[in-house]
């Protein structure tokens, strides 16, 4: 990791996410054999702005990174998971940043869904009052 990137990670996890995201977007675009011009046209943005996104420019917007990821069929885990760590004031393991986080992203979504489903089930399940037998009532 370069000194500049290490500094930006310490200062702002969002800057770090933009750099990692830009790299992943560029790799995916090249793997799909799309030019910057073709992808930019599909996204409805200028080629210059796409270059800025791929370069991890701090001024790039996360919603543009997400739009690129969706269009290229990328998991958004490389964007969202580091931000979850940052939100909990936890250090994001840098080793995860270079890999495919789609499985981890899916597990997070499933866990959140299951937790909400469990909560909803408890809320909708009636609790039946049990009637006490006369002997238990103190007669």
Your description of this structure?
By secondary structure, the chain is mostly helical. It has one domain (about 5-125): 434 Repressor (Amino-terminal Domain). It is built from 8 helices and no strands. It has helices at about 5-10, 15-30, 35-45, 45-55, 60-70, 75-85, 95, 100-125. Helix 1 (about 5-10) crosses helix 2 (about 15-30), helix 2 packs parallel to helix 5 (about 60-70) and helix 3 (about 35-45) crosses helix 4 (about 45-55). Residues about 1-10 have low confidence and may be disordered.
Salient structural properties:
single chain; 139 residues; mainly alpha; 434 Repressor (Amino-terminal Domain); 8 helices; elongated
List the helices and strands and how they pair.
Blueprint: H1 3-11, H2 13-31, H3 36-43, H4 47-54, H5 62-72, H6 77-87, H7 94-97, H8 102-124
Please provide the ordered H/E string of secondary-structure elements: HHHHHHHH
Number of strands: 0
Please report the distance between the alpha carbons of the first and last residues: 78 Å
* Percent helix: 55-70%
CATH class: Mainly Alpha
CATH superfamily: lambda repressor-like DNA-binding domains
- What is the global morphology? elongated
């Amino acid at each position: 990791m370069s000194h500049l990137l290490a500094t930006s990670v310490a200062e702002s996890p969002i800057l770090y996410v933009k750099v990692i995201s830009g790299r992943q977007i560029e790799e995916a675009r090249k793997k799909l054999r799309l030019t910057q011009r073709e992808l930019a046209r599909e996204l409805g943005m200028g080629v210059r702005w796409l270059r800025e996104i791929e370069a991890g420019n701090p001024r790039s917007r996360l919603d543009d990174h997400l739009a690129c990821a969706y269009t290229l069929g990328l998991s958004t885990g490389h964007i969202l998971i580091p931000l979850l760590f940052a939100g909990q004031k936890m250090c994001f393991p840098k080793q995860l940043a270079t890999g495919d986080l789609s499985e981890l992203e899916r597990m997070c979504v499933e866990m959140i869904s299951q937790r909400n489903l469990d909560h909803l089930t408890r809320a909708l399940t009636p609790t039946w009052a049990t009637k006490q037998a006369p002997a238990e009532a103190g007669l």
